[in-house]
Amino acid sequence: MAEALHFETEVIQVVLETMDVFTFRLEIPADVPFIWRAGQFINLTVNTPEYGPGMERLTRAYSISSSPGEGRFLDLTVKYYEDGHVSRHLREVTYVGEVVGVEGPSGDFYFDAGAGATGTGAARRIALIGGGAGVAPLRAIARDILERGLDVDIHYLASCRTPNDMIYLATLMAWTEHHPNLRVTHTITRPQGQGWSGPTGRIDAEKLRACVPPESTDLYFVAGPTAMVASVREALKKDLGVDRSRIVWEPWG
To answer: What is the pLDDT of residues 75-110, one digit of tens each?
Structure first.
């Protein structure tokens, strides 16, 4: 495991993914030997004097949504919450050139081509299951597998409110054109008036059985809101009979 580092760096790009989700790109300084595995996270510290005494500097954990092979930068895909002090700062205050603090990498949410992520043996068919901005580490894992040319079949299954809330949609569709080992499925929880003809509703046992059944899936990665992750894990174990050693999860509070 790479040693966790502390360093300061600059925001070099801000990208609007959806109306309430942004990707912030941070430069990795040339003299910082930052090495990470796709799917890991960092602790981001930002200066927030706008919140007054005692809250001038706040830290939050964010998954890295870029893969190590993409370049000397870190992408963080962040969902805005009105009551989230750091996400609100990032959306309303952060600018290109702002200096932030980074600590990491951390976490065991990553894919090991030889031994899965749990030491259960080589996994050649994986499911990446996410909700909301929880798809951030899943994007990194998928990108890493594809750019390394690994012999791994990937089914990316994501839940979001409406078609306009699909994060990375254009990128994912472009990847599927060049990588037949990647399949992408979205399910919409608020389809009314959206003109949506695809799957609807939350990711439940029925959708898991239809998209990523245990007989054709070696390893499951699940990331997203805590309740969603708990529900998917329960469905996998109780309804589909998947052993917990085949499920890797990352809940977001």
So the answer is: 999 999 999 999 999 999 999 999 999 999 999 999
- Cα-atom radius of gyration of the chain, to the nearest Å? 18
Domains detected in the chain: 5-106 (2.40.30.10), 125-252 (3.40.50.80)
pLDDT at 193: 80
Burial environment of residue 170 by CB neighbours within 10 A (0 to 12, 13 to 18, 19 or more): exposed
Contact in structure between 128 and 58 (CB atoms under 8 Å)? no
Using CA atoms, how far apart are residues 69 and 14, in angstroms rounded to an integer? 20
Q: Where in the chain does DSSP place strands (E)?
A: 5-18, 21-27, 41-47, 57-63, 73-79, 99-106, 125-131, 153-160, 182-188, 219-225, 247-252
Q: What is the mean pLDDT of residues 208-227?
A: 97
Question: Are 136 and 41 in contact, with CB atoms under 8 Å apart?
Answer: no
Q: What's the Cα-to-Cα distance from 224 to each of 190, 227, 233, 253, rounded to whole Å?
A: 18, 8, 12, 9
pTM of the model: 0.94
Q: 101: closest CA among 152, 50, 157, 58?
A: 58
pLDDT of residue 113: 77
pLDDT at 164 over 60: yes
Beta bridge partners of 100: 9
Look-up of token digits 């949504």? 65
- Mean pLDDT across the stretch 32-44? 97
Of 116, 85, 81, 125, residue with least CA distance to 225: 81
